[in-house]
Amino acid sequence: MLFGKSFHLPTLCCMFGTPLSPPSSSNPSHRSPMASSVRIAVVGDVHDDWNLQEDTKALQLLQVLLMPFSCLYLRKDRVQLQLECLGEEHVGYRRVDYPSLKLSIVGGRPFSCGGEHLFRKALLDARSQVGLRQNGLLLSHGLDFSAYVLDLVLSYYGVNCNSSNRNDSLRYGIQDLDGSAKRIYEAALGAPEDHSVILLAHNGPTGLGSKINDICGRDWVFGGGDHGDPDLAHAISHLKETTQLRIPLVVFGHMHKELAYGNGLRKMIVVGDDNTIYLNGAIVPRVKRLGNHQTANTQSSMNNKTSISSPNAEDTVRAFTLVEISGGKLQKIAETWVSVTGDETSLQEEHILYRREHAGTENPMQ
Predict the structure, then answer these.
(1) Gap between the Cα atoms of 87 and 91, Å rounded
(2) Which candidate, 364, 125, 130, places its Cα nearest to that of 268?
(3) Which helix H or strand E contains 140, and what residues bound it?
(4) Contact in structure between 298 and 289 (CB atoms under 8 Å)
């Protein structure tokens, strides 16, 4: 199980795609057979709700082959260590091919906060203020980062923070959104002709709506607005205009399903005019603890209502968004909740977001 890392990281982002069964090796005698069907489990935002043991049990039940995370979280000076742990699984601005699955994952812009600027102004303001104290913390703008963390994030894009902690070998060298779009575009080029390409980003692209409940809509300000990433949108458009790549799916997180101020729920899926599906996996919180403040009688198993008897404090249900692909085409997408009680696991809820009814018919369920 190669996905097995426990990441406890409050939010900027990295992306990685981890195979839950080993990709084909360079030795043909050890290659696994080509998969005609693929099941992928998506986690959009972790927010500290990741437990290696418990989530491993859930994933074993779901029998997934690949698990893309759209974001990790930054906790003070652990950022560099976490990125080093990801290693080649970190797909920011790069492509990873899975020949046995006939899939390629292309990463978008790491550390995106959404919107029309490369950096959120509060991040730059935070670095300016925290720079007065080498080891101090800034507790404003909703941010809580050390100077080291802020320097690390900004230096990845070539912003000189005059920090001795900066690792120049890890810099992306991105100066503007056009440069970011170019890097995403170039990362996708060269994907094998028989592969489907999945774009994995922290935040979704612009152009998917501006209402507060739209998939990338601003829900924290009056009047809403499109909070998508313009560089990602431009890269996708350019790829479709200039290449023959098949891009059936764009996966991201960041924009939480539950809207701010109790305004309801966000649309989590959009089917584009060309049948590319845009999927938001940011179910937050993704873990429900069945005990003190949770009741079991609201849970369901598949489409049949059942209850979980006598849950203790450690019983949980854990969310994943499952994507099923067959013959290079998306067949089904579902928000899935798995109950983990000790060593026992069961499928508790399944909310169908999308189902391909038959050839040429796309049926989003929202």
Answers:
(1) 9
(2) 364
(3) strand 137-140
(4) no
Q: Tell me: the pLDDT tens digits for 65-103?
A: 888 777 555 455 556 666 777 777 788 899 999 998 899
Global confidence as pTM: 0.77
Encoded tokens for 46: 């972790």
| CA atoms in the 13 A half-sphere facing the CB of 269 | 23
Strands (DSSP E) contained in the chain are: 16-19, 37-42, 66-69, 95-98, 103-107, 137-140, 143-146, 196-200, 246-252, 269-271, 277-280, 287-289, 300-301, 304-305, 316-326, 329-341, 344-358, 361-364
Q: How many residues does the chain have?
A: 366
Q: Which two tokens stand for residue 359?
A: 């050839």
Radius of gyration for the alpha carbons in the chain, expressed in angstroms and rounded: 20
Q: Collapsing DSSP states into helix, strand and coil, what is residue 87?
A: helix
Half-sphere CA count of 266, side-chain side, radius 13 A: 31
Residue-wise pLDDT for 7-29, tens only, equals 322 233 334 455 554 443 333 33
